[in-house]
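REVIEWER CHECKLIST
Item 1: Sequence provided? yes
Item 2: Single chain? yes
Item 3: Sequence as submitted:
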Amino acid sequence: MRRIVRAALAALALSPASLFIADQYRDDGSSDVASEVAHNATPTTLDTTPTTLLTTTPAATKTFVRDTYLAFGISFLRPKQWRAQTFDQQTSGSMTPVVYLSADELSNPCDPPTSGGTECGFPIDTLTPNTPVITWTFSLEGATPMANTLIDGQPARVESAKPGACSAIDADETIVAAVERPNGGVFFMRACLSGDQLAAAEQNVYAMLASVTVT
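Item 4: Structure as written out by the authors:
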């Protein structure tokens, strides 16, 4: 059952009533851009000033670091404990993995390439409580998200579900986002959360989203 985390989203100026999007990932974790659901929503402005957000969001007062991926044209802040991890495989159908974030050690979620292409699942079999796993991917073929907010001035869509697609790895909540890139393509983010500190994890995910810049 889908439920909007109203308190956390309110800090990002998102309208709970406007949030409605199908997970862009299948239940097995593989990408499915075509499953996006068109829905009329009025874009609102998301606070993209990290300093303000980090000051006003208690869970985001830990040390953040900025990662920049020039090859994709995206940059964002992340909690230092969420280590950036990448793997040799860089393609899953029309989706290209950008980076995986977690304090846990992750593994390559993609099967070796075959004539039918490469399929990617989750980078961990079972989520460790209170240890989020975040996946960033990019698609040149991704449909422009039906915006309910703006991220770095770009049309974007954010929603949460409990448990959502991340239930496949024993998560309690899934947060998904889609951000249009100015010169074409769409970035997708999926955060898998579990444990008794969901509110803190949610706020850190939204702080990361608020800090995103795309080129």
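Item 5: Key structural point noted by reviewer: The radius of gyration is 16 Å.
Item 6: Recommendation: ____
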